[in-house]
Protein backbone atom coordinates (compact mmCIF):
# COMPACT_ATOMS: atom_id res chain seq x y z
CA UNK A 1 0.00 0.00 0.00
CA UNK A 2 2.87 2.38 0.71
CA UNK A 3 4.15 1.70 -2.81
CA UNK A 4 0.82 2.84 -4.29
CA UNK A 5 0.84 5.99 -2.18
CA UNK A 6 4.40 6.67 -3.29
CA UNK A 7 3.38 6.02 -6.91
CA UNK A 8 0.59 8.59 -6.80
CA UNK A 9 2.73 11.08 -4.94
CA UNK A 10 5.42 10.66 -7.57
CA UNK A 11 2.89 10.98 -10.36
CA UNK A 12 1.38 14.12 -8.90
CA UNK A 13 4.76 15.64 -8.19
CA UNK A 14 6.06 14.67 -11.59
CA UNK A 15 3.75 17.15 -13.25
CA UNK A 16 5.97 19.85 -11.80
CA UNK A 17 9.22 18.01 -12.71
CA UNK A 18 11.02 21.36 -12.32
CA UNK A 19 11.92 20.58 -8.71
CA UNK A 20 15.61 21.33 -8.94
CA UNK A 21 17.62 23.26 -6.39
CA UNK A 22 18.21 26.09 -8.85
CA UNK A 23 14.48 26.70 -9.01
CA UNK A 24 13.66 26.41 -5.32
CA UNK A 25 12.25 29.93 -5.13
CA UNK A 26 10.05 29.43 -8.18
CA UNK A 27 8.85 26.11 -6.80
CA UNK A 28 7.98 27.73 -3.49
CA UNK A 29 5.96 30.42 -5.26
CA UNK A 30 4.24 27.76 -7.38
CA UNK A 31 3.43 25.75 -4.26
CA UNK A 32 1.87 28.80 -2.64
CA UNK A 33 -0.20 29.43 -5.79
CA UNK A 34 -1.26 25.76 -5.88
CA UNK A 35 -2.35 25.92 -2.25
CA UNK A 36 -4.44 28.99 -3.01
CA UNK A 37 -5.96 27.30 -6.06
CA UNK A 38 -6.77 24.19 -4.02
CA UNK A 39 -8.42 26.26 -1.33
CA UNK A 40 -10.68 27.90 -3.92
CA UNK A 41 -11.19 24.84 -6.17
CA UNK A 42 -14.80 23.67 -6.11
CA UNK A 43 -15.43 20.10 -5.05
CA UNK A 44 -16.20 17.94 -8.07
CA UNK A 45 -17.66 14.52 -8.54
CA UNK A 46 -15.63 12.36 -10.87
CA UNK A 47 -16.94 9.26 -12.61
CA UNK A 48 -15.38 5.85 -12.06
CA UNK A 49 -14.24 6.04 -15.68
CA UNK A 50 -12.41 9.32 -15.06
CA UNK A 51 -10.83 7.96 -11.89
CA UNK A 52 -9.64 4.86 -13.77
CA UNK A 53 -8.21 7.07 -16.51
CA UNK A 54 -6.45 9.10 -13.83
CA UNK A 55 -5.01 5.94 -12.25
CA UNK A 56 -3.77 4.69 -15.62
CA UNK A 57 -2.27 8.04 -16.58
CA UNK A 58 -0.63 8.38 -13.16
CA UNK A 59 1.18 5.08 -13.59
CA UNK A 60 2.46 6.17 -16.99
CA UNK A 61 3.50 9.58 -15.64
CA UNK A 62 5.45 7.93 -12.82
CA UNK A 63 7.43 5.94 -15.40
CA UNK A 64 8.04 9.05 -17.51
CA UNK A 65 9.11 10.97 -14.41
CA UNK A 66 11.66 8.33 -13.48
CA UNK A 67 13.11 8.28 -16.99
CA UNK A 68 13.37 12.04 -17.28
CA UNK A 69 14.67 12.56 -13.75
CA UNK A 70 17.75 10.58 -14.77
CA UNK A 71 18.11 12.69 -17.92
CA UNK A 72 17.61 15.90 -15.95
CA UNK A 73 20.35 14.93 -13.50
CA UNK A 74 22.70 14.16 -16.39
CA UNK A 75 21.92 17.38 -18.28
CA UNK A 76 24.62 20.01 -18.11
CA UNK A 77 23.67 23.65 -18.17
CA UNK A 78 20.44 25.49 -17.65
CA UNK A 79 19.29 25.27 -21.27
CA UNK A 80 19.84 21.51 -21.42
CA UNK A 81 17.87 21.07 -18.20
CA UNK A 82 15.06 23.26 -19.52
CA UNK A 83 14.94 21.20 -22.73
CA UNK A 84 14.66 17.98 -20.69
CA UNK A 85 11.88 19.50 -18.55
CA UNK A 86 9.94 20.60 -21.63
CA UNK A 87 10.29 17.21 -23.28
CA UNK A 88 9.21 15.45 -20.07
CA UNK A 89 6.23 17.76 -19.68
CA UNK A 90 5.17 17.12 -23.28
CA UNK A 91 5.38 13.35 -22.70
CA UNK A 92 3.32 13.63 -19.50
CA UNK A 93 0.67 15.73 -21.23
CA UNK A 94 0.52 13.14 -24.01
CA UNK A 95 0.14 10.33 -21.44
CA UNK A 96 -2.79 12.16 -19.82
CA UNK A 97 -4.44 12.85 -23.17
CA UNK A 98 -3.86 9.25 -24.31
CA UNK A 99 -5.70 8.11 -21.18
CA UNK A 100 -8.76 10.00 -22.41
CA UNK A 101 -8.59 12.85 -19.89
CA UNK A 102 -7.96 16.53 -20.38
CA UNK A 103 -4.96 17.85 -18.44
CA UNK A 104 -7.22 20.18 -16.43
CA UNK A 105 -9.42 17.24 -15.40
CA UNK A 106 -6.34 15.18 -14.48
CA UNK A 107 -5.05 18.05 -12.33
CA UNK A 108 -8.46 18.56 -10.72
CA UNK A 109 -8.62 14.87 -9.79
CA UNK A 110 -5.08 15.10 -8.41
CA UNK A 111 -6.07 18.04 -6.23
CA UNK A 112 -9.25 16.29 -5.08
CA UNK A 113 -7.26 13.19 -4.15
CA UNK A 114 -4.89 15.24 -2.02
CA UNK A 115 -7.86 16.65 -0.10
CA UNK A 116 -9.98 13.48 0.15
CA UNK A 117 -8.38 10.33 1.62
CA UNK A 118 -11.40 8.21 0.66
CA UNK A 119 -11.09 9.28 -2.98
CA UNK A 120 -7.37 8.52 -2.86
CA UNK A 121 -8.19 5.05 -1.53
CA UNK A 122 -10.65 4.45 -4.40
CA UNK A 123 -8.11 5.46 -7.03
CA UNK A 124 -5.39 3.36 -5.41
CA UNK A 125 -7.70 0.34 -5.49
CA UNK A 126 -8.46 1.00 -9.17
CA UNK A 127 -4.75 1.25 -9.97
CA UNK A 128 -4.04 -1.92 -8.03
CA UNK A 129 -6.86 -3.77 -9.83
CA UNK A 130 -5.68 -2.62 -13.27
CA UNK A 131 -2.10 -3.60 -12.43
CA UNK A 132 -3.29 -7.06 -11.38
CA UNK A 133 -5.32 -7.50 -14.57
CA UNK A 134 -2.34 -6.35 -16.67
CA UNK A 135 -0.26 -9.06 -15.01
CA UNK A 136 -2.88 -11.67 -15.88
CA UNK A 137 -2.99 -10.54 -19.50
CA UNK A 138 0.78 -10.64 -20.00
TrEMBL record:
<keyword id="KW-0732">Signal</keyword>
<feature type="domain" description="DUF4168">
    <location>
        <begin position="47"/>
        <end position="123"/>
    </location>
</feature>
<dbReference type="Pfam" id="PF13767">
    <property type="entry name" value="DUF4168"/>
</dbReference>
<feature type="signal peptide">
    <location>
        <begin position="1"/>
        <end position="24"/>
    </location>
</feature>
<protein>
    <recommendedName>
        <fullName>DUF4168 domain-containing protein</fullName>
    </recommendedName>
</protein>
<feature type="compositionally biased region" description="Low complexity">
    <location>
        <begin position="23"/>
        <end position="45"/>
    </location>
</feature>
<dbReference type="InterPro" id="IPR025433">
    <property type="entry name" value="DUF4168"/>
</dbReference>
<feature type="region of interest" description="Disordered">
    <location>
        <begin position="23"/>
        <end position="51"/>
    </location>
</feature>
Amino acid sequence: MQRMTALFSAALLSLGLAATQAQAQQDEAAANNAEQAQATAPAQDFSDSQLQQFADASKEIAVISQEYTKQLQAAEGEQAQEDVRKEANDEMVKAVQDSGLEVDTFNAIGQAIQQDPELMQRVQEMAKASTASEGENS
